[in-house]
Specification:
The chain is mainly α and about 475 residues long. Helices cover about 45% and strands about 10% of the residues. The protein starts with a strand and ends with a helix. The chain binds one RNA strand of 75 nucleotides through strand 6, helix 5, helix 6, strand 11 and strand 12.
RNA sequence: GGCCCCAUCGUCUAGUGGUCAGGACGUUGGCCUUUCAAGCCGAUAACGCGGGUUCGAAUCCCGCUGGGGUCACCA
């Protein structure tokens, strides 16, 4: 049977790095096995869900190249893919559970619940900031065994019936995972406004959508037990679960490692990496390696990722976000990328620097020349900009060091030779250094550096041939003459 | 605090009873060189602790310690 997997984000903000990796692992698994990747929007949190967030998530996935077979824009064959659009379905299942005595209506108001907590706190002599959970507070509804149907607001709770046995599941990476079913409580299925809660809608949807494998972060292990209880009550076969290790980040305030969060870690936002000039594939490659491995391999093309990925190779230990390594991976893919693709991605970065360019041969020469000199597209654009403006900005210390009398003499010699160059291409331009070296006996550095400074204003640039070709004949002479003047 | 998950270099990881414990990032020494990069060669650094099982444990079991997660009318 072909696997059917899903990514089910809640649209309460931008696409998170952890979410992106969850999506990636599921997507890879589907692609690897010829299965189906489903995108489902869990928008039942009315407080925090926004249409903008839905769009942000779609945009993020698209930027990463993670496409879905079913979901927003492709609402078949098990619609809808937005949970708020299938409220009647959840109500139907809830009703069924109530009629079977597996769930009950709880008319306790939020005020009453608050009072219960307050009374408990008082009886334990707790202070204001104390955590009731640590003191052992456990909610027990007075309505659990009262089947009356009142015309009053109520939540629907699942009726846990502990047997003293252990409840659990076979996790693909953790193996048998279980706990005593007495530890489970009567969790809420439907809020008083009829909107379902995660543990409920998730189970209903995974069942309705024929999901075969659920892969999600380890923070969901504890909710999985409750979901298993639901599957049992409903008589449904649960999917195969896989819980991925978490992506951690260092909390700069405390110095501790903790689950990467939107609030404390700006890099948790997938799109800030786009802004920072990270290639989408580099981010994918890097993120895939947190919690997953394929022997000693580090660098993967998209095709290799699909070819090699398997859930059984997912690890168990949490991984810490390592920005230096992301940069290294990014640098690798810039270095090994196709010039036309890199150029296309660089255009907007140049635009934001006020440089309007098209993806032409010249730009491609430029990104190629700087591909070993830029770690990000931001650096790439910054490196390229000076070649697209008229005249060079001179670095005083470089001028002092290389454009002295001897240096200028070298530049004059170069200028003379340049005059004779018919085809303004790097292979034709580069040899002038050797020629001048042969004529003067000077070291190449003493020749190339003055030329470099005259043409770029600074002491760093690609090889002289590439540099001059990039500049163009006219601009080269303009800058040389300006430097010699 | 209850429960759950986890434990190899600073970080990401390979390892599945017998390896000099390997790779990558980082740091670092050198080579190359037309600057800066890149590239190449080398160095650096780990099996948390204590018990078992075994001829033999990073690998299996138990305990401890440590880290993380989770305990909502959030997901």
């Amino acid at each position: 049977m072909k696997p059917r997997v899903r990514f089910a984000p809640s649209p309460t903000g931008y696409l998170h790095i952890g979410g992106a990796r969850t999506a990636l692992f599921n997507w890879l698994y589907a692609r690897r096995h010829g299965g189906t990747f489903i995108l489902r929007i869990e928008d039942t949190d009315q407080e925090r869900s926004t249409p903008e967030s839905v769009q942000a998530i779609l945009t993020g996935l698209q930027w990463l190249g993670i496409d879905w077979d079913e979901g927003p824009g492709k609402e078949a064959p098990y619609p809808p893919y937005f949970q708020m659009k299938k409220l009647p379905r959840y109500a139907e299942i809830a009703e069924q559970l109530i009629s079977e005595g597996k769930a009950y209506r709880d008319y306790t108001t939020e005020e009453e619940t608050a009072k219960l907590r307050a009374d408990f706190a008082a009886s334990k002599g707790l202070k204001d900031g104390d955590d009731l959970r640590k003191a052992g507070f456990k909610y027990s509804s007075p309505w659990r065994d009262k089947p009356e149907k009142l015309d009053r607001p109520h939540v629907v709770r699942f009726k846990m019936k502990p047997t003293g046995a252990r409840i659990g599941f076979e996790d693909l990476v953790h193996g048998r995972t279980e706990k005593p079913d007495e530890d489970l409580d009567d969790f809420v299925l439907l809020r008083s406004d009829g909107i379902p809660l995660y543990n409920f809608s998730c189970v209903v949807d995974d069942h309705d959508m024929h999901i075969t494998h659920v892969g999600r972060g380890q923070e969901h292990i504890n909710s999985t037990y409750s979901q298993i209880a639901l599957y049992q009550a409903l008589g449904w076969t649960p999917p195969v679960f896989t819980h991925f290790p978490l992506i951690m980040a260092v909390n700069k305030e405390t110095g501790n490692e903790e689950k990467m969060s939107k609030r404390k870690h700006p890099e948790a936002d997938v799109m800030v990496h786009q802004k920072n000039g990270i290639l989408p594939h580099a981010l994918l490659n890097f993120v895939a390696r947190i919690g997953w491995s394929h022997g000693n391999d580090e660098l993967f093309t998209r095709e290799q990722l699909v070819e090699y990925f398997d859930l059984k190779d997912v690890g168990r230990t949490n991984g810490v976000w390592n920005p230096e390594k992301l940069i290294a991976v990014n640098q690798h893919w810039i270095k090994n990328g196709k010039p036309e693709e890199l150029a296309a991605m660089t255009v907007p970065f140049l635009a934001s620097l006020g440089v309007t360019v098209t993806n032409d041969a010249r730009l491609q020469l430029g990104v190629k020349a700087f591909s070993t000199r830029a770690k990000t597209l931001v650096e790439m654009a910054a490196n390229l900009k000076p070649y697209y403006v008229h005249g060079a900005t001179m670095d005083p210390s470089a001028v002092t060091k290389f454009l002295d009398a001897a240096g200028k003499d070298m530049v004059r010699r170069a200028r003379a030779k340049l005059e004779a160059i018919a085809e303004w291409k790097a292979p034709a331009l580069d040899p002038i250094i050797d020629q001048i070296a042969a004529e003067t006996g000077a070291k190449k550095g003493a020749i190339a550096q003055p030329i470099r400074v005259a043409c770029t204003g600074g002491a760093f640039s690609p090889g002289i041939g590439d540099t001059l070709e990039l500049l163009g004949r006219e601009e080269t002479f303009f800058r040389i003459d300006a430097a010699l003047a």
